[in-house]
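Project outcomes to date are best conveyed with an example. Our students and postdoctoral researchers have been running inverse folding experiments weekly, and each run begins with a structure described purely in tokens. The record below, which covers 363 residues, was selected by the lab manager from last quarter's runs and is presented without edits.
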């Protein structure tokens, strides 16, 4: 037996984003222009052979400053299990850092390969692409607006996105009834937020017309349901063109891979009891890039305890599906204080990061 702490987090599994008006965010005086940085995945090689994924999830883009260095390409190693799932994801060169790279490992965890015998010793490189907001494709700006993980888009970007539209604000248009899809009828994709941007015009009588899907993640069920919802939406006013409204389906939880037997991690000569009490319980924080994608994980750490209860010598001995859960578990355990008067060596702690169940919250 080992001590076990777990972090359970509630996440709405369905949500919508109201179409925002252009946001008045100007570049501060003396600051450089903003840019969008995307990390583009290369080919996957396992033991030297190219392996094609069934679904390769790209990392989410981030806002940065145009003058901020892009950084170099980043390499990751991983394995593929018999179900086609990626595991044991590790960054090559622990000291390497890249602006906006925090979603690389989570996106790789959400990637899927064909089921089979599995693969080991797989590698993939990610290359940064940084573009000014003036040069970024409108489709990429739209995708970022749905997943704005590093702050709102500046006003100039919204102006580009709505350049052909006179329909930007439901409040000004006099929205009568906004209809939403039945999100419960749409299967959630583990680790991936699906979204659909619907374009439409408004007739003089307030009904919608020319309804079409203009961008999204190509989830057919969500696209169909989103178009239907817009077709049934009504306004008090009309005579507008180029209207847009995005809906998203939050990711389904991606369970952690199975954990190995606890007993193998207990160090030789350990004096720590199989269970001990905490005077100060560790504070459990779900790593944000994984919470965003509802990706669960675990880590096993060993540690010693001083006679006054302070935790030290923390070592990560296992973590899945990525090494990031080990780093987070280290931080969690370090914040605890044990009940003891003589101290321990060789304690073992399993930290679980689990998404909690919650009901859909549609807006």
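After processing, the design step wrote out the following sequence:
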């Amino acid at each position: 037996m080992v001590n076990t702490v777990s972090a359970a987090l509630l996440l709405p599994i369905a949500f919508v984003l109201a179409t925002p008006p252009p946001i008045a965010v100007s570049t501060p005086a003396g600051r450089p222009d903003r840019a969008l940085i995307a990390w583009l995945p290369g080919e996957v090689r396992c033991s030297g052979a190219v392996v094609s994924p069934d679904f390769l999830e790209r990392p989410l883009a981030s806002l940065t400053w145009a003058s901020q260095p892009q950084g170099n390409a980043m390499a990751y190693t991983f394995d593929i299990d018999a179900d086609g799932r990626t595991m044991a994801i590790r960054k090559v060169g622990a000291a390497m850092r890249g602006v906006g790279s925090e979603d690389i490992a989570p996106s790789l965890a959400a990637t899927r390969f064909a089921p089979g015998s599995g693969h080991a010793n797989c590698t993939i490189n990610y290359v940064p692409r940084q573009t000014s907001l003036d040069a970024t494709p409108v489709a990429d700006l739209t995708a970022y607006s749905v997943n704005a993980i590093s702050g709102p888009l500046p006003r100039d970007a919204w102006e580009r996105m709505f350049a052909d539209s006179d329909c930007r604000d439901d409040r000004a248009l006099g929205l009568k009834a906004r209809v939403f899809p039945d999100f419960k009828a749409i299967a959630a994709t583990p680790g991936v937020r699906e979204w659909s941007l619907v374009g439409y015009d408004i007739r003089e009588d307030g009904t919608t017309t020319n309804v079409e899907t203009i961008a999204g993640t190509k989830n057919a069920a969500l696209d169909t349901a989103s178009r239907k919802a817009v077709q049934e939406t009504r306004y008090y006013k009309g005579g507008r063109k180029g209207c847009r409204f995005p809906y998203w389906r939050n990711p389904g939880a991606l369970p952690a891979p199975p954990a190995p037997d606890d007993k193998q991690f207990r160090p030789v000569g350990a004096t720590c009891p199989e269970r001990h009490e905490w005077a100060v319980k560790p504070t459990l924080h779900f790593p944000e890039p994984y919470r965003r994608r509802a990706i669960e994980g675990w880590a096993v750490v060993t540690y010693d305890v001083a006679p006054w209860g302070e935790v030290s010598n923390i070592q990560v001995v296992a973590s899945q599906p990525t090494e990031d859960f080990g780093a987070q578990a280290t931080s969690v355990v370090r914040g605890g204080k044990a009940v003891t008067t003589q101290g321990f060596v060789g304690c073992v702690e399993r930290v679980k990061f689990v998404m909690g169940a919650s009901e859909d919250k549609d807006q």
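Helices lie at 104-109, 138-146, 155-161, 170-173, 220-231, 288-293, 324-334. Residues 7-31, 358-363 have pLDDT under 50 and may be disordered. The training component of this project remains on track.
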